[in-house]
């Protein structure tokens, strides 16, 4: 083979190799893009707004805690953390369609989609803005598009349910929405008796006993209060104040006092419920009558 033919053969092979490489590369799955807020620290996130069926749920960071705008209630810390984690950790998948006529197929059209906006507080422009549609077939991802962009993509790792059910998942249903390790005193005002528990160093004492309280008893009480959850939020606008509250609990932590006031029992289809008002919460919670009796009997067995 002459040098000229050899050179031409080498060039031809190089061209074929380059073409094959391009074909191979085009057939490989494209690397996923991370969420626009993936690298933003949690404490820089200031507000999250979710609009579903023209109803808006907003949580904003206030004093290190997440709170709902309406009603002015605390947000459930675990639910807020799940939402933030999902919005930070999802990845942007491949484009499925660029045809606006197919938006309704994926429920990412304006009337069907859930719109999610995340703000850092630096400006009024959202750092993350999504129109979230249906879940994928395996429920591990969701279809979405960016507002003003016709391309439908997958949000891998983002649950459509988490977004669409935010209004019911985000309100804190714990009666006492903070860690009881912060408490230095509990005052239980019962209809016929008042009992105060006070912490000094690591020892708890009671106003009705001279001996220190057993740590197991204190731990059991804290467990009951920690697990005390509302079953619902009172929908009625009727007054709920009781002539004589079934229980008033003052929890002192640092220099602040958190008060729980339990009203008269209400007849409900699933059993008697009691309305509860607490410090820092606009709405009225409903707790089971049994849970109130359980706590009262534990604190004062002789009642």
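-> sequence recovered:
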């Amino acid at each position: 083979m002459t040098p000229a033919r050899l050179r031409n053969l080498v060039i031809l092979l190089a061209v074929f190799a380059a073409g094959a490489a391009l074909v191979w590369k085009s057939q490989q799955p494209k690397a996923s893009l991370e969420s626009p807020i993936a690298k933003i620290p949690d404490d820089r996130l200031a507000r999250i707004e979710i609009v579903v069926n023209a109803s808006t749920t907003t949580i904003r960071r206030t004093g290190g805690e997440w709170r709902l705008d309406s009603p002015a209630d605390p947000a459930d810390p675990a639910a807020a953390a799940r939402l933030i984690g999902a919005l930070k950790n999802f990845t942007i998948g491949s484009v499925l369609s660029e045809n606006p006529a197919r938006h309704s197929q994926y429920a990412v059209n304006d009337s069907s989609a859930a719109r999610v906006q995340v703000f850092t507080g630096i400006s009024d422009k959202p750092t993350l803005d999504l129109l979230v549609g249906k879940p994928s077939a395996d429920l591990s991802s969701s279809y979405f598009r960016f507002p003003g962009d016709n391309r439908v993509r997958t949000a891998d790792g983002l649950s459509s349910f988490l977004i669409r059910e935010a209004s019911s998942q985000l309100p804190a249903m714990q009666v006492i929405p903070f860690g009881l390790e912060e408490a230095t005193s509990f005052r239980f005002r019962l209809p016929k008796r008042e009992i105060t528990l006070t912490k000094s160093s690591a020892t708890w004492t009671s106003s009705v006993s001279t001996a220190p309280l057993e740590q197991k008893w204190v731990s059991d009480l804290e467990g009951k209060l920690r697990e005390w959850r509302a079953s619902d939020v009172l929908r009625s606008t009727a007054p709920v104040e009781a002539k004589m509250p079934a229980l008033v609990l003052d929890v002192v932590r640092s220099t602040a006092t958190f008060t729980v006031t339990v009203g008269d029992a209400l007849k409900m289809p699933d059993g008697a419920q009691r309305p509860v008002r607490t410090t820092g919460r606009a709405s009225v919670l409903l707790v089971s009558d049994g849970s109130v009796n359980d706590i009262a009997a534990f604190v004062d067995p002789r009642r």
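Residues 3-27 form the longest helix (25 residues).
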